[in-house]
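Researcher: Re-running this chain for the archive, since the previous output was lost when a drive failed. Same request as before.
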Amino acid sequence: MSELVRFLREKVWLLGDTRWYARVDGVRGELVEVERLGYAQLDARARAVGAWLSGRTPPGARVLLMYPAGLEFLTVFLGCLYSGRIAVPAPLPDTDRRALQRAEGILRGAGVGLVLTDATHRPALGSWLAGLDPVARAGCVATDETVLPDPGSWSPAALEGAATAYVQYTSGSTREPRGVVVTHRNLLHNLLSIREKFLPEEILDELRHDPSQTGAGWLPHHHDMGLVGMLLSPLASYGNLVFSSPVAFVAHPLLWLQMISRYRALYTFAPDFGYDWLLRSLKDVPLTDLDPPLDLECLRYALSGAEPVRAGVLEAVARRLAPVGFRPDIWAPSYGLAEATLMVTGTPCGSGPTVGRFDREALEAGRAVPAADGSDLVGCGRPADADVRIVDAAASRPLEDGHVGEIWVRGDSVADGYLADAQATAEHFGAVTADGDGPFLRTGDLGFFQDGELYVTGRAKDLIIVNGRNLHPQDIEEIGAATDPATGPCAAFALPDAAGRERVVLVQEIRPRHLRGRTPAALAALIKERLANELRLAVDVVVVAPLSVPRTTSGKIQRARTRDELRAARLVPLHSDLHGPLETRP
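Model: Regenerated C-alpha coordinates:
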Protein backbone atom coordinates (compact mmCIF):
# COMPACT_ATOMS: atom_id res chain seq x y z
CA MET A 1 0.00 0.00 0.00
CA SER A 2 1.09 3.62 -0.42
CA GLU A 3 2.70 5.56 2.43
CA LEU A 4 -0.45 7.68 2.55
CA VAL A 5 -2.78 4.71 3.09
CA ARG A 6 -0.38 3.21 5.63
CA PHE A 7 -0.29 6.54 7.47
CA LEU A 8 -4.08 6.86 7.61
CA ARG A 9 -4.63 3.25 8.65
CA GLU A 10 -2.02 3.61 11.39
CA LYS A 11 -4.31 6.17 13.05
CA VAL A 12 -7.15 3.64 12.93
CA TRP A 13 -4.93 0.99 14.52
CA LEU A 14 -3.81 3.39 17.26
CA LEU A 15 -7.15 4.99 18.10
CA GLY A 16 -9.92 2.63 16.98
CA ASP A 17 -13.36 4.04 17.72
CA THR A 18 -12.13 6.34 20.50
CA ARG A 19 -12.11 9.04 17.78
CA TRP A 20 -15.07 9.75 15.52
CA TYR A 21 -16.74 11.78 12.79
CA ALA A 22 -20.28 13.11 13.27
CA ARG A 23 -22.65 15.03 11.00
CA VAL A 24 -25.26 17.31 12.54
CA ASP A 25 -28.23 19.28 11.27
CA GLY A 26 -30.50 22.01 12.57
CA VAL A 27 -34.06 20.96 13.36
CA ARG A 28 -36.39 23.77 14.46
CA GLY A 29 -33.42 25.72 15.77
CA GLU A 30 -31.97 22.75 17.65
CA LEU A 31 -28.72 20.94 16.85
CA VAL A 32 -29.33 17.25 16.13
CA GLU A 33 -26.63 14.64 15.51
CA VAL A 34 -27.66 12.73 12.38
CA GLU A 35 -24.86 10.16 11.98
CA ARG A 36 -21.59 9.14 13.63
CA LEU A 37 -18.78 6.73 12.78
CA GLY A 38 -15.67 5.92 14.78
CA TYR A 39 -12.32 5.63 13.03
CA ALA A 40 -12.47 1.82 13.02
CA GLN A 41 -16.03 1.81 11.66
CA LEU A 42 -15.00 4.30 8.98
CA ASP A 43 -12.00 2.17 8.04
CA ALA A 44 -14.04 -1.06 7.86
CA ARG A 45 -16.54 0.47 5.47
CA ALA A 46 -13.73 2.03 3.41
CA ARG A 47 -12.08 -1.40 3.08
CA ALA A 48 -15.41 -2.90 1.99
CA VAL A 49 -15.82 -0.18 -0.65
CA GLY A 50 -12.21 -0.70 -1.73
CA ALA A 51 -12.77 -4.43 -2.16
CA TRP A 52 -15.96 -3.77 -4.15
CA LEU A 53 -14.18 -1.28 -6.42
CA SER A 54 -11.31 -3.73 -6.99
CA GLY A 55 -13.77 -6.29 -8.31
CA ARG A 56 -15.76 -3.79 -10.37
CA THR A 57 -13.17 -1.46 -11.97
CA PRO A 58 -9.62 -1.70 -13.37
CA PRO A 59 -6.69 -0.26 -11.37
CA GLY A 60 -6.38 3.51 -11.81
CA ALA A 61 -10.00 3.91 -12.95
CA ARG A 62 -11.48 7.36 -12.33
CA VAL A 63 -14.67 7.31 -10.29
CA LEU A 64 -16.96 10.34 -10.01
CA LEU A 65 -18.23 10.86 -6.45
CA MET A 66 -21.49 12.85 -6.34
CA TYR A 67 -22.77 12.80 -2.77
CA PRO A 68 -24.54 15.13 -0.38
CA ALA A 69 -22.60 16.16 2.72
CA GLY A 70 -22.18 13.15 4.97
CA LEU A 71 -20.09 10.19 6.00
CA GLU A 72 -20.95 8.05 2.97
CA PHE A 73 -18.83 10.36 0.82
CA LEU A 74 -15.87 10.07 3.22
CA THR A 75 -15.98 6.27 3.37
CA VAL A 76 -16.18 5.99 -0.43
CA PHE A 77 -13.36 8.51 -0.91
CA LEU A 78 -11.16 6.49 1.46
CA GLY A 79 -12.25 3.30 -0.35
CA CYS A 80 -10.92 4.79 -3.57
CA LEU A 81 -7.57 5.56 -1.91
CA TYR A 82 -7.41 2.07 -0.42
CA SER A 83 -8.08 0.39 -3.79
CA GLY A 84 -5.91 2.55 -6.04
CA ARG A 85 -8.93 3.98 -7.85
CA ILE A 86 -8.95 7.72 -8.56
CA ALA A 87 -11.74 9.64 -6.86
CA VAL A 88 -13.15 12.69 -8.66
CA PRO A 89 -15.26 14.59 -6.08
CA ALA A 90 -17.95 16.77 -7.63
CA PRO A 91 -21.03 18.65 -6.43
CA LEU A 92 -24.45 17.19 -7.09
CA PRO A 93 -25.76 19.02 -10.18
CA ASP A 94 -29.04 20.86 -9.72
CA THR A 95 -31.39 22.01 -12.48
CA ASP A 96 -29.31 25.12 -13.22
CA ARG A 97 -28.03 25.02 -16.80
CA ARG A 98 -24.45 25.93 -15.89
CA ALA A 99 -24.33 23.41 -13.04
CA LEU A 100 -25.37 20.63 -15.40
CA GLN A 101 -22.84 21.79 -18.01
CA ARG A 102 -20.11 21.83 -15.35
CA ALA A 103 -21.01 18.30 -14.22
CA GLU A 104 -21.00 17.02 -17.81
CA GLY A 105 -17.66 18.75 -18.44
CA ILE A 106 -16.12 16.97 -15.44
CA LEU A 107 -17.60 13.66 -16.54
CA ARG A 108 -16.12 14.00 -20.05
CA GLY A 109 -12.84 15.64 -19.04
CA ALA A 110 -12.03 13.05 -16.39
CA GLY A 111 -12.93 10.08 -18.59
CA VAL A 112 -15.22 8.69 -15.91
CA GLY A 113 -16.83 5.28 -16.41
CA LEU A 114 -18.58 5.01 -13.04
CA VAL A 115 -20.58 7.47 -10.94
CA LEU A 116 -21.08 6.72 -7.25
CA THR A 117 -23.79 8.39 -5.17
CA ASP A 118 -26.41 7.61 -2.51
CA ALA A 119 -29.84 6.04 -2.90
CA THR A 120 -31.66 9.36 -2.61
CA HIS A 121 -29.89 10.91 -5.60
CA ARG A 122 -29.31 7.86 -7.80
CA PRO A 123 -32.64 8.06 -9.73
CA ALA A 124 -32.11 11.70 -10.76
CA LEU A 125 -28.46 11.13 -11.63
CA GLY A 126 -29.34 8.00 -13.57
CA SER A 127 -31.88 9.93 -15.64
CA TRP A 128 -29.39 12.72 -16.28
CA LEU A 129 -26.68 10.28 -17.35
CA ALA A 130 -29.11 8.43 -19.65
CA GLY A 131 -29.82 11.70 -21.43
CA LEU A 132 -26.19 12.29 -22.35
CA ASP A 133 -24.70 11.09 -25.62
CA PRO A 134 -23.13 7.61 -25.48
CA VAL A 135 -19.57 8.99 -25.24
CA ALA A 136 -20.30 10.66 -21.89
CA ARG A 137 -22.52 7.99 -20.36
CA ALA A 138 -21.39 6.14 -17.25
CA GLY A 139 -22.82 3.60 -14.87
CA CYS A 140 -24.41 4.93 -11.69
CA VAL A 141 -24.42 3.06 -8.37
CA ALA A 142 -25.76 3.98 -4.95
CA THR A 143 -23.17 2.67 -2.51
CA ASP A 144 -25.44 2.91 0.53
CA GLU A 145 -27.85 0.35 -0.94
CA THR A 146 -25.24 -1.93 -2.51
CA VAL A 147 -24.25 -5.17 -0.82
CA LEU A 148 -20.51 -4.74 -0.19
CA PRO A 149 -17.94 -7.48 0.40
CA ASP A 150 -16.60 -8.27 3.83
CA PRO A 151 -13.94 -5.67 4.83
CA GLY A 152 -11.54 -8.56 5.44
CA SER A 153 -11.57 -9.38 1.74
CA TRP A 154 -9.76 -6.11 0.95
CA SER A 155 -6.13 -6.40 -0.02
CA PRO A 156 -3.86 -3.33 -0.21
CA ALA A 157 -3.06 -2.01 -3.66
CA ALA A 158 0.65 -1.77 -4.51
CA LEU A 159 0.98 1.99 -5.01
CA GLU A 160 3.92 4.37 -5.20
CA GLY A 161 3.77 7.91 -3.84
CA ALA A 162 3.61 9.23 -7.41
CA ALA A 163 0.30 7.41 -8.03
CA THR A 164 -2.69 9.68 -8.50
CA ALA A 165 -4.86 9.85 -5.37
CA TYR A 166 -7.71 11.99 -6.68
CA VAL A 167 -8.58 14.72 -9.17
CA GLN A 168 -9.65 17.98 -7.55
CA TYR A 169 -11.62 20.29 -9.80
CA THR A 170 -11.00 23.98 -9.18
CA SER A 171 -13.88 26.27 -8.25
CA GLY A 172 -13.72 28.26 -11.50
CA SER A 173 -13.79 31.75 -9.98
CA THR A 174 -11.57 33.20 -12.77
CA ARG A 175 -11.81 30.52 -15.50
CA GLU A 176 -13.49 27.24 -16.35
CA PRO A 177 -12.80 24.56 -13.72
CA ARG A 178 -9.73 22.39 -14.30
CA GLY A 179 -8.94 18.97 -12.86
CA VAL A 180 -5.90 19.12 -10.57
CA VAL A 181 -4.06 15.77 -10.38
CA VAL A 182 -3.14 15.21 -6.71
CA THR A 183 -0.83 12.29 -5.89
CA HIS A 184 -0.60 10.15 -2.77
CA ARG A 185 2.70 11.90 -1.97
CA ASN A 186 1.14 15.36 -2.40
CA LEU A 187 -1.70 14.60 -0.02
CA LEU A 188 0.47 12.98 2.65
CA HIS A 189 2.97 15.86 2.53
CA ASN A 190 0.25 18.51 2.87
CA LEU A 191 -1.51 16.72 5.73
CA LEU A 192 1.78 16.42 7.62
CA SER A 193 2.68 20.06 6.91
CA ILE A 194 -0.66 21.24 8.28
CA ARG A 195 -0.27 19.10 11.38
CA GLU A 196 3.36 19.81 12.17
CA LYS A 197 3.79 23.41 11.06
CA PHE A 198 0.67 24.93 12.57
CA LEU A 199 -0.21 22.81 15.59
CA PRO A 200 2.22 23.21 18.52
CA GLU A 201 3.50 20.04 20.15
CA GLU A 202 1.38 20.61 23.27
CA ILE A 203 -1.79 20.68 21.18
CA LEU A 204 -0.74 17.61 19.21
CA ASP A 205 -0.10 15.89 22.53
CA GLU A 206 -3.64 16.79 23.64
CA LEU A 207 -5.05 15.43 20.40
CA ARG A 208 -3.13 12.16 20.78
CA HIS A 209 -4.21 11.51 24.37
CA ASP A 210 -7.51 13.32 24.85
CA PRO A 211 -10.40 11.64 22.97
CA SER A 212 -12.61 14.73 23.36
CA GLN A 213 -10.53 17.06 21.15
CA THR A 214 -12.73 18.08 18.22
CA GLY A 215 -12.87 20.28 15.15
CA ALA A 216 -16.06 21.85 13.77
CA GLY A 217 -16.97 22.97 10.24
CA TRP A 218 -19.45 23.05 7.37
CA LEU A 219 -17.31 23.31 4.21
CA PRO A 220 -18.27 21.57 0.93
CA HIS A 221 -16.50 18.22 0.67
CA HIS A 222 -15.91 18.53 -3.08
CA HIS A 223 -13.52 21.48 -2.66
CA ASP A 224 -9.91 21.36 -1.47
CA MET A 225 -10.46 23.17 1.83
CA GLY A 226 -13.44 20.98 2.73
CA LEU A 227 -11.84 17.72 1.60
CA VAL A 228 -8.27 18.12 2.89
CA GLY A 229 -8.68 20.77 5.59
CA MET A 230 -11.98 19.65 7.10
CA LEU A 231 -12.44 15.93 6.39
CA LEU A 232 -8.94 14.46 6.17
CA SER A 233 -6.91 16.63 8.57
CA PRO A 234 -8.64 15.29 11.74
CA LEU A 235 -7.73 11.72 10.78
CA ALA A 236 -4.12 12.79 10.23
CA SER A 237 -4.02 14.72 13.52
CA TYR A 238 -5.77 12.26 15.88
CA GLY A 239 -8.93 14.38 16.34
CA ASN A 240 -12.70 14.14 16.10
CA LEU A 241 -14.80 16.14 13.64
CA VAL A 242 -18.34 17.44 13.88
CA PHE A 243 -19.69 18.99 10.69
CA SER A 244 -22.84 20.10 8.92
CA SER A 245 -23.68 20.59 5.27
CA PRO A 246 -23.01 24.01 3.73
CA VAL A 247 -26.74 24.27 2.99
CA ALA A 248 -27.57 23.79 6.68
CA PHE A 249 -25.04 26.47 7.66
CA VAL A 250 -26.31 29.02 5.14
CA ALA A 251 -29.91 28.44 6.25
CA HIS A 252 -29.07 28.43 9.99
CA PRO A 253 -25.68 30.12 10.60
CA LEU A 254 -26.08 29.81 14.36
CA LEU A 255 -25.65 26.05 13.86
CA TRP A 256 -21.90 26.60 13.41
CA LEU A 257 -21.58 28.23 16.83
CA GLN A 258 -23.79 25.58 18.40
CA MET A 259 -21.47 22.86 17.06
CA ILE A 260 -18.42 24.58 18.53
CA SER A 261 -20.11 25.15 21.88
CA ARG A 262 -21.76 21.75 22.38
CA TYR A 263 -18.81 19.63 21.22
CA ARG A 264 -16.19 21.92 22.83
CA ALA A 265 -14.38 22.31 19.52
CA LEU A 266 -10.68 23.11 19.67
CA TYR A 267 -10.55 24.52 16.13
CA THR A 268 -12.70 25.59 13.21
CA PHE A 269 -12.15 26.82 9.64
CA ALA A 270 -13.92 28.76 6.89
CA PRO A 271 -13.31 31.18 4.04
CA ASP A 272 -13.70 34.89 4.70
CA PHE A 273 -17.22 35.03 3.24
CA GLY A 274 -18.35 32.35 5.73
CA TYR A 275 -17.33 34.47 8.70
CA ASP A 276 -18.90 37.51 7.04
CA TRP A 277 -22.17 35.60 6.46
CA LEU A 278 -22.17 34.53 10.10
CA LEU A 279 -21.65 38.13 11.20
CA ARG A 280 -24.46 39.50 9.05
CA SER A 281 -26.84 36.72 10.11
CA LEU A 282 -26.25 37.31 13.83
CA LYS A 283 -27.05 41.00 13.70
CA ASP A 284 -30.26 40.72 15.74
CA VAL A 285 -29.50 37.50 17.65
CA PRO A 286 -29.08 37.91 21.46
CA LEU A 287 -26.08 35.62 21.79
CA THR A 288 -25.86 35.82 25.58
CA ASP A 289 -29.53 34.89 26.09
CA LEU A 290 -29.69 31.64 24.12
CA ASP A 291 -30.78 28.35 25.65
CA PRO A 292 -28.63 26.33 25.82
CA PRO A 293 -26.05 29.11 26.27
CA LEU A 294 -23.18 29.53 23.81
CA ASP A 295 -19.64 29.15 25.13
CA LEU A 296 -16.77 29.57 22.64
CA GLU A 297 -13.93 29.72 25.16
CA CYS A 298 -12.91 26.22 24.02
CA LEU A 299 -11.80 27.55 20.60
CA ARG A 300 -8.05 27.95 20.24
CA TYR A 301 -7.67 28.07 16.44
CA ALA A 302 -9.98 29.74 13.90
CA LEU A 303 -8.54 29.39 10.41
CA SER A 304 -9.56 31.79 7.65
CA GLY A 305 -8.46 31.09 4.09
CA ALA A 306 -9.43 30.15 0.50
CA GLU A 307 -9.91 33.83 -0.46
CA PRO A 308 -8.52 37.23 0.62
CA VAL A 309 -8.83 37.60 4.40
CA ARG A 310 -10.25 40.98 5.37
CA ALA A 311 -9.08 42.72 8.53
CA GLY A 312 -12.49 44.30 9.02
CA VAL A 313 -14.20 40.91 9.07
CA LEU A 314 -11.72 39.49 11.61
CA GLU A 315 -12.19 42.47 13.88
CA ALA A 316 -15.98 42.60 13.59
CA VAL A 317 -16.47 38.85 14.17
CA ALA A 318 -14.17 38.86 17.20
CA ARG A 319 -16.02 41.86 18.65
CA ARG A 320 -19.47 40.34 18.02
CA LEU A 321 -18.55 36.96 19.52
CA ALA A 322 -16.49 38.29 22.45
CA PRO A 323 -19.43 38.09 24.92
CA VAL A 324 -19.59 34.31 24.38
CA GLY A 325 -15.87 33.69 24.75
CA PHE A 326 -14.27 34.24 21.32
CA ARG A 327 -10.75 35.71 21.55
CA PRO A 328 -9.12 37.63 18.65
CA ASP A 329 -5.75 35.91 19.19
CA ILE A 330 -7.15 32.59 17.92
CA TRP A 331 -7.43 33.89 14.34
CA ALA A 332 -5.18 31.95 11.96
CA PRO A 333 -5.17 33.43 8.42
CA SER A 334 -3.79 31.16 5.71
CA TYR A 335 -3.22 30.90 1.98
CA GLY A 336 -3.55 27.89 -0.28
CA LEU A 337 -4.99 26.51 -3.50
CA ALA A 338 -5.97 23.19 -5.04
CA GLU A 339 -2.88 23.16 -7.25
CA ALA A 340 -0.78 22.86 -4.06
CA THR A 341 -3.16 20.24 -2.56
CA LEU A 342 -4.35 22.85 -0.04
CA MET A 343 -2.09 24.76 2.36
CA VAL A 344 0.80 26.93 1.15
CA THR A 345 1.23 29.33 4.08
CA GLY A 346 -0.44 29.52 7.45
CA THR A 347 -0.46 30.97 10.94
CA PRO A 348 0.54 28.66 13.81
CA CYS A 349 -1.97 28.07 16.57
CA GLY A 350 -1.51 30.68 19.31
CA SER A 351 0.31 33.24 17.15
CA GLY A 352 -2.70 35.35 16.26
CA PRO A 353 -3.12 37.38 13.06
CA THR A 354 -0.70 39.95 11.71
CA VAL A 355 -2.42 43.01 10.24
CA GLY A 356 -0.33 45.59 8.38
CA ARG A 357 -1.36 49.01 7.13
CA PHE A 358 0.12 50.01 3.78
CA ASP A 359 0.07 53.11 1.63
CA ARG A 360 -2.68 52.64 -0.96
CA GLU A 361 -0.97 54.55 -3.79
CA ALA A 362 2.26 52.62 -3.29
CA LEU A 363 0.36 49.33 -3.45
CA GLU A 364 -1.18 50.40 -6.74
CA ALA A 365 2.38 50.98 -7.99
CA GLY A 366 3.54 47.53 -6.80
CA ARG A 367 5.24 48.48 -3.52
CA ALA A 368 4.23 47.64 0.05
CA VAL A 369 5.05 50.72 2.11
CA PRO A 370 3.86 50.77 5.74
CA ALA A 371 1.75 53.85 6.48
CA ALA A 372 -0.27 55.13 9.42
CA ASP A 373 -3.16 55.95 7.09
CA GLY A 374 -3.67 53.35 4.38
CA SER A 375 -5.10 49.95 3.49
CA ASP A 376 -5.23 47.20 6.11
CA LEU A 377 -3.93 43.86 4.83
CA VAL A 378 -3.91 40.59 6.75
CA GLY A 379 -0.80 38.44 6.72
CA CYS A 380 -1.40 34.82 5.71
CA GLY A 381 1.45 33.35 7.72
CA ARG A 382 4.65 31.62 6.70
CA PRO A 383 5.30 28.82 4.19
CA ALA A 384 4.16 25.30 5.11
CA ASP A 385 7.31 23.39 4.15
CA ALA A 386 7.25 24.98 0.69
CA ASP A 387 9.50 27.28 -1.32
CA VAL A 388 7.40 30.40 -1.96
CA ARG A 389 8.68 33.23 -4.16
CA ILE A 390 7.32 36.59 -5.26
CA VAL A 391 8.13 37.03 -8.95
CA ASP A 392 7.82 39.73 -11.58
CA ALA A 393 5.81 37.53 -13.94
CA ALA A 394 6.68 39.53 -17.07
CA ALA A 395 10.44 39.15 -16.51
CA SER A 396 10.38 35.92 -14.42
CA ARG A 397 12.55 37.80 -11.95
CA PRO A 398 12.26 37.14 -8.18
CA LEU A 399 11.40 40.24 -6.18
CA GLU A 400 12.61 41.38 -2.80
CA ASP A 401 10.41 41.77 0.26
CA GLY A 402 7.97 44.64 0.00
CA HIS A 403 7.45 44.29 -3.75
CA VAL A 404 4.15 43.02 -5.17
CA GLY A 405 4.36 40.24 -7.72
CA GLU A 406 2.97 36.83 -8.63
CA ILE A 407 3.18 34.09 -6.00
CA TRP A 408 5.20 31.07 -7.21
CA VAL A 409 5.38 27.83 -5.20
CA ARG A 410 7.62 24.75 -5.22
CA GLY A 411 7.43 21.71 -2.95
CA ASP A 412 6.13 18.20 -2.43
CA SER A 413 2.55 19.43 -1.98
CA VAL A 414 2.46 20.91 -5.50
CA ALA A 415 0.28 18.69 -7.68
CA ASP A 416 1.30 16.86 -10.84
CA GLY A 417 -0.60 19.21 -13.13
CA TYR A 418 -3.98 19.50 -14.84
CA LEU A 419 -5.75 16.42 -16.09
CA ALA A 420 -5.53 15.96 -19.87
CA ASP A 421 -4.24 19.51 -20.39
CA ALA A 422 -0.53 19.41 -21.20
CA GLN A 423 -0.41 23.03 -22.34
CA ALA A 424 -1.97 24.46 -19.17
CA THR A 425 0.22 22.13 -17.07
CA ALA A 426 3.36 23.42 -18.77
CA GLU A 427 2.24 27.05 -18.40
CA HIS A 428 1.25 26.85 -14.74
CA PHE A 429 3.42 24.08 -13.25
CA GLY A 430 6.62 24.52 -15.24
CA ALA A 431 7.63 28.10 -14.48
CA VAL A 432 11.35 28.85 -14.32
CA THR A 433 12.91 32.05 -13.00
CA ALA A 434 15.16 34.20 -15.15
CA ASP A 435 18.23 32.66 -13.46
CA GLY A 436 17.05 29.12 -14.32
CA ASP A 437 15.60 28.05 -10.97
CA GLY A 438 12.49 25.86 -11.10
CA PRO A 439 10.09 24.43 -11.87
CA PHE A 440 7.55 26.43 -9.87
CA LEU A 441 3.78 26.55 -9.78
CA ARG A 442 2.49 29.90 -11.01
CA THR A 443 -0.51 30.51 -8.77
CA GLY A 444 -1.98 33.48 -10.61
CA ASP A 445 -2.25 35.23 -7.22
CA LEU A 446 -0.51 38.48 -6.36
CA GLY A 447 1.18 39.28 -3.09
CA PHE A 448 4.34 40.26 -1.23
CA PHE A 449 6.48 39.21 1.72
CA GLN A 450 7.01 41.49 4.70
CA ASP A 451 9.02 40.27 7.72
CA GLY A 452 8.64 36.68 6.56
CA GLU A 453 4.83 36.92 6.33
CA LEU A 454 2.96 36.48 3.04
CA TYR A 455 0.35 39.10 2.19
CA VAL A 456 -2.03 38.22 -0.66
CA THR A 457 -3.37 41.20 -2.57
CA GLY A 458 -5.59 39.53 -5.18
CA ARG A 459 -5.79 37.61 -8.46
CA ALA A 460 -3.72 38.68 -11.44
CA LYS A 461 -6.63 37.95 -13.80
CA ASP A 462 -8.96 40.14 -11.72
CA LEU A 463 -6.61 43.13 -11.51
CA ILE A 464 -8.28 46.31 -12.80
CA ILE A 465 -5.87 48.56 -14.69
CA VAL A 466 -7.39 51.95 -15.40
CA ASN A 467 -5.83 55.40 -15.80
CA GLY A 468 -2.42 53.99 -14.90
CA ARG A 469 -3.66 52.54 -11.58
CA ASN A 470 -3.55 48.88 -10.54
CA LEU A 471 -6.76 48.31 -8.57
CA HIS A 472 -7.76 45.14 -6.75
CA PRO A 473 -11.48 44.45 -7.15
CA GLN A 474 -11.92 43.29 -3.55
CA ASP A 475 -10.98 46.80 -2.32
CA ILE A 476 -13.86 48.22 -4.35
CA GLU A 477 -16.21 45.40 -3.39
CA GLU A 478 -15.48 45.74 0.32
CA ILE A 479 -16.57 49.37 0.26
CA GLY A 480 -19.65 48.59 -1.83
CA ALA A 481 -20.78 45.76 0.45
CA ALA A 482 -20.22 47.82 3.62
CA THR A 483 -21.74 51.10 2.44
CA ASP A 484 -25.20 50.49 3.86
CA PRO A 485 -27.30 47.78 5.56
CA ALA A 486 -29.08 47.40 2.21
CA THR A 487 -25.88 46.57 0.27
CA GLY A 488 -24.71 42.99 -0.08
CA PRO A 489 -22.20 41.02 -2.18
CA CYS A 490 -20.91 42.61 -5.37
CA ALA A 491 -18.48 42.17 -8.26
CA ALA A 492 -16.09 44.81 -9.61
CA PHE A 493 -14.33 44.69 -12.97
CA ALA A 494 -13.18 46.83 -15.89
CA LEU A 495 -15.39 47.11 -18.95
CA PRO A 496 -14.74 49.01 -22.16
CA ASP A 497 -17.51 51.18 -23.54
CA ALA A 498 -18.38 51.42 -27.25
CA ALA A 499 -15.48 53.83 -27.77
CA GLY A 500 -13.03 51.40 -26.17
CA ARG A 501 -12.50 53.49 -23.00
CA GLU A 502 -12.05 51.43 -19.85
CA ARG A 503 -14.55 52.07 -17.07
CA VAL A 504 -14.85 50.48 -13.66
CA VAL A 505 -18.19 48.76 -13.08
CA LEU A 506 -19.60 47.51 -9.78
CA VAL A 507 -22.51 45.06 -9.99
CA GLN A 508 -24.06 45.46 -6.56
CA GLU A 509 -26.66 43.24 -4.91
CA ILE A 510 -29.06 44.92 -2.51
CA ARG A 511 -31.35 43.77 0.27
CA PRO A 512 -34.71 45.37 -0.61
CA ARG A 513 -36.13 45.07 2.92
CA HIS A 514 -33.37 47.40 4.17
CA LEU A 515 -34.04 50.17 1.62
CA ARG A 516 -36.47 51.95 3.99
CA GLY A 517 -38.21 53.83 1.20
CA ARG A 518 -35.05 54.72 -0.74
CA THR A 519 -34.66 53.92 -4.42
CA PRO A 520 -31.89 51.71 -5.87
CA ALA A 521 -30.61 54.84 -7.65
CA ALA A 522 -30.19 56.62 -4.32
CA LEU A 523 -28.22 53.67 -2.97
CA ALA A 524 -26.02 53.65 -6.09
CA ALA A 525 -25.28 57.35 -5.55
CA LEU A 526 -24.26 56.63 -1.96
CA ILE A 527 -21.85 53.90 -3.08
CA LYS A 528 -20.34 56.13 -5.77
CA GLU A 529 -19.77 58.89 -3.22
CA ARG A 530 -17.95 56.55 -0.82
CA LEU A 531 -15.75 55.14 -3.58
CA ALA A 532 -14.89 58.63 -4.79
CA ASN A 533 -13.96 59.74 -1.27
CA GLU A 534 -12.06 56.64 -0.16
CA LEU A 535 -10.43 55.41 -3.38
CA ARG A 536 -10.59 58.56 -5.55
CA LEU A 537 -12.36 56.38 -8.08
CA ALA A 538 -15.28 56.97 -10.45
CA VAL A 539 -17.40 53.84 -10.73
CA ASP A 540 -20.53 52.94 -12.70
CA VAL A 541 -22.90 51.06 -10.38
CA VAL A 542 -25.39 48.45 -11.58
CA VAL A 543 -27.85 47.53 -8.83
CA VAL A 544 -29.32 44.01 -8.94
CA ALA A 545 -31.54 41.81 -6.77
CA PRO A 546 -30.16 39.40 -4.15
CA LEU A 547 -28.34 36.30 -5.51
CA SER A 548 -27.98 37.86 -8.98
CA VAL A 549 -24.16 37.97 -8.93
CA PRO A 550 -22.82 34.59 -10.15
CA ARG A 551 -20.90 32.45 -7.68
CA THR A 552 -18.87 29.24 -7.80
CA THR A 553 -20.07 26.07 -6.09
CA SER A 554 -18.00 27.12 -3.06
CA GLY A 555 -19.61 30.56 -2.90
CA LYS A 556 -16.84 32.67 -4.47
CA ILE A 557 -17.87 35.63 -6.61
CA GLN A 558 -17.27 35.04 -10.34
CA ARG A 559 -16.24 38.45 -11.66
CA ALA A 560 -15.55 37.38 -15.25
CA ARG A 561 -18.88 35.58 -15.49
CA THR A 562 -20.67 38.60 -13.99
CA ARG A 563 -19.08 40.78 -16.66
CA ASP A 564 -20.18 38.34 -19.37
CA GLU A 565 -23.73 38.19 -17.99
CA LEU A 566 -23.89 41.99 -17.99
CA ARG A 567 -22.59 42.22 -21.57
CA ALA A 568 -25.13 39.63 -22.72
CA ALA A 569 -27.99 41.49 -20.97
CA ARG A 570 -28.75 38.45 -18.82
CA LEU A 571 -28.65 40.49 -15.61
CA VAL A 572 -31.81 42.39 -14.71
CA PRO A 573 -30.77 45.78 -13.26
CA LEU A 574 -32.88 47.55 -10.66
CA HIS A 575 -30.75 50.59 -11.53
CA SER A 576 -27.82 51.10 -13.92
CA ASP A 577 -25.36 53.96 -14.44
CA LEU A 578 -24.41 52.45 -17.78
CA HIS A 579 -25.82 54.14 -20.85
CA GLY A 580 -25.38 53.27 -24.48
CA PRO A 581 -24.06 50.02 -25.99
CA LEU A 582 -21.29 48.06 -24.31
CA GLU A 583 -18.24 46.73 -26.11
CA THR A 584 -18.90 43.03 -26.73
CA ARG A 585 -15.36 41.82 -27.39
CA PRO A 586 -13.93 39.36 -24.81
